[in-house]
Structures are given as structure tokens and as C-alpha cells.
Amino acid sequence: HRERRYALAMVTHVSKEAFGLRSRILANLSDFERQSHQDPDLTPAAVAVMIVQDERHPDPCFVITRRTSKLRQHPGQWALPGGRLDEGEDARSAALRETHEELGVRLDPNAILGLLDDYPTRSGYTITPVVVWGGSDMMMNPNPDEVAEVYWVPLADLERPEVPRLRTAPL
């Protein structure tokens, strides 16, 4: 019974921390002045920056994948779940759809916390990062045709001095 009480206490603690983190991210993104990029020569795409915090990952993480080597575009590359927008689709819907197609995770629209700045790429896309709350107790079922591996990267790791910083590259 002692182990069960400890496990329940840990889940309750993580749940409270996760709720606080979700609220902080939502507040920060609501104040964020997003920069969109409109270029008719670039294909619109969206990626999901899925934030997870649960008993397996008590430190907040984001999910990143390694694409399979069988894919036609960007084989073997590291990627956030995402892809080009389908006809009539917006970035939010595309990010949720791609998260389901690639990771087998179906998220409701209320999981969307906000959008980050658009990022034009040299490969011909304008990528809109959509921050989504993956929550806790999320079960993934990665699509083996698209995803070779899934990684949970602690957000704190992004602050380490040896982590490369994103720079804008000329198109």
C-alpha cells in the first residue's frame, strides 16, 4: 500500500505541475506577437511543437522524431510532426492531423496553445510551428512508414550552452 500511495502522490504532483506549465505556456503565447511570412512561391506547412509532462517524463519535454530512410522528402532527418497543408486547411488543423498521422496521437483543438513565428525554408516551405499540449498519459503509436524513432527532449536542455542557436539563413 505504501508504494501505491507514493505512486498516487507522484501522479498528483506531476499533474499539478503540468497544469501550471500548460497555463504558463498559454499565457506567454497569448502575449506573443507572432510574425507571419507570406510568400506565394513557398508551400505552407505546419509542425506540432508537442509539449509533454507526465509521470514517465516529469520534466517538461517536446517530442521530435527521426524520419524513416524510405521517405521521398527529407529521409532520415530529425523533424517535428508536421507537413504541408491540405487544400482548405489551416496550420492548426494540419498540425493536429499530422500528429495523428505520424504519431497516432489524436488531440482535440483545445490542445492548441498558440502559434510561433513562421519560418521560411530553403527547401520551399513556410513552416508555422503550432504549440500543442500533449498532456499526460498520452499513448503514441508511431506510423512505421514515416517515423523511425521518437524522442522526448527536456525543455531545459534547450538552455544548455552547447545547444546550437537557430539563425535565419538566406533563402
Write up this protein.
With 171 residues, this protein is of the alpha+beta class. It contains 2 helices and 8 strands, in the order αββββαββββ. Strands 1, 2, 3, 4, 5, 6, 7 and 8 form an 8-stranded mixed beta sheet that branches.
Along the chain, the helix and strand elements come as: HEEEEHEEEE
Poorly predicted segments: 1-14
Report the biggest beta sheet as strand number plus sense, adding barrel if it closes: 8 strands, mixed
Span of the ends, CA to CA:
61 Å
Distinct helical segment count: 2
Structural class: alpha+beta
Q: Report the principal-axis shape.
A: globular
Arithmetic mean pLDDT: 85
Per DSSP E runs of 2 or more residues, the count of β-strands stands at: 8
Q: Report the β-strand fraction as a percent range.
A: 25-35%
Gyration radius from CA atoms, angstroms = 17 Å
What portion of residues is helical? 25-40%
